[in-house]
Write a structure and sequence with these properties.
Length: about 80
């Protein structure tokens, strides 16, 4: 290996690379959130995904938790890191 190749390799290794966890990590995280929402609904005596004429407050709390979990997934799994 000559000096020029070595210098190029060391320069490339020294520059921080941006890494994103990506859509697979995001999907896995979202699946975990949905699992928690199903458990929340079941704990309240309801079935997740069934339309109701009016939403009870306990299900609103489940939905708020689901939204927070999904937002955290987006912030963590899709954010670039160094």
């Amino acid at each position: 290996m000559n000096f020029k190749s070595l210098a190029l390799l060391l320069t490339a290794a020294a520059v921080p690379q941006v890494v994103v966890a990506g859509p697979l990590a995001y999907g896995i995280c979202q699946t975990g959130c949905n699992g928690l929402a199903v458990a929340c609904y079941a704990g309240a005596g309801f079935t997740f995904g069934v339309a109701l004429p009016a939403v009870p407050p306990v299900l609103m709390a489940c939905n708020v938790g689901l939204g927070g979990c999904m937002a955290a997934c987006a912030a963590i799994a899709l954010a670039p890191t160094l």
